[in-house]
């Protein structure tokens, strides 16, 4: 459970470095219009920022995650409604939920087709699966240029629109719609991004060896350190893939 151990390590800093409840509420507002009737399960709930945002909008939200330290934060936001659980073997009976939500987690589950089969299993007939997936993108700026330099370290993602569609069909899910659209705004300073990268918060940095770090990551960090006004926020609008599926 490499992913769980890595998220255990960053749990204390995750909200602060990823936008906290402000980002969670933005994401929840984008998802809420596609939910159908019935309780909601967020798989990979993390610290619960998106789930709590949906709960604030009046939804009955539950969450599972493989990282107990991350779940400890989620439990404060969703008391009694979170549990340790693997996306590939969800601890719920068939047909429990009206909705299952995956937010930027399908590339980390280890076996995306299996995770979708499990999601389909716990959905009621007519229930919906909502996924925020694939590579996010923002307009070019100084910080995006640094992240682009690190893109060579990112493995091929299984959660492309085409890959997700194929896995969803095998799981008995029919796509209702897909969009690549604005998701959240964020104002990030060079110093904040530098700290995030130095602490290896992005998953693609978890297992980078020393040689690759020196050759690829350090020059990117040096470029960040050289930017003027390191505490001036750079405003960014990030776009994401969002797909909605229905269970027959």
From TrEMBL:
Pfam families, sorted: Methyltransf_11
BP GO terms, sorted: methylation
Domain Methyltransferase type, residue spans: 41-130
InterPro entries from the UniProt entry: Methyltransf_11, Methyltransf_Superfamily, SAM-dependent_MTases_sf
GO molecular function, one term: methyltransferase activity
Keyword terms: Methyltransferase, Transferase
Name this polypeptide is given: Class I SAM-dependent methyltransferase
Native organism: Streptomyces thermolineatus
């Amino acid at each position: 459970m490499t992913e769980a151990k890595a998220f255990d390590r960053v749990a204390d800093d995750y909200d602060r470095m990823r936008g906290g409840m402000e980002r969670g509420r933005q994401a929840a507002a984008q998802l809420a219009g596609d939910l159908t009737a019935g309780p909601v399960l967020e798989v990979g709930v993390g610290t619960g920022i998106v789930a709590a945002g949906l709960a604030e909008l009046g939804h009955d939200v539950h969450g599972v995650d493989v990282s107990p330290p991350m779940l400890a934060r989620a439990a404060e936001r969703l008391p009694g409604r979170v549990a340790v659980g693997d996306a590939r073997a969800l601890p719920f009976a068939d047909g429990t939920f009206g909705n299952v939500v995956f937010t930027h987690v399908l590339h980390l589950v280890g076996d995306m087709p299996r995770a979708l089969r499990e999601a389909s299993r716990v959905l009621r007939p007519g229930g919906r699966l909502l996924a925020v997936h694939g590579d996010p993108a923002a307009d070019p700026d100084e910080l995006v240029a640094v992240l682009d330099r690190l893109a060579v370290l990112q493995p091929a993602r299984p959660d492309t629109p085409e890959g997700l569609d194929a896995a969803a069909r095998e799981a008995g899910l029919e796509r209702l719609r897909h969009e690549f659209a604005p998701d959240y705004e964020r104002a990030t300073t060079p110093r904040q991004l530098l700290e995030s990268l130095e602490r290896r918060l992005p998953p693609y940095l978890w297992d980078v060896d020393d040689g690759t770090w020196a050759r690829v990551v350090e020059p990117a960090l040096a470029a960040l350190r050289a930017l003027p006004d390191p505490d001036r926020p750079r405003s960014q609008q990030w776009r994401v893939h969002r797909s909605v599926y229905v269970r027959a």
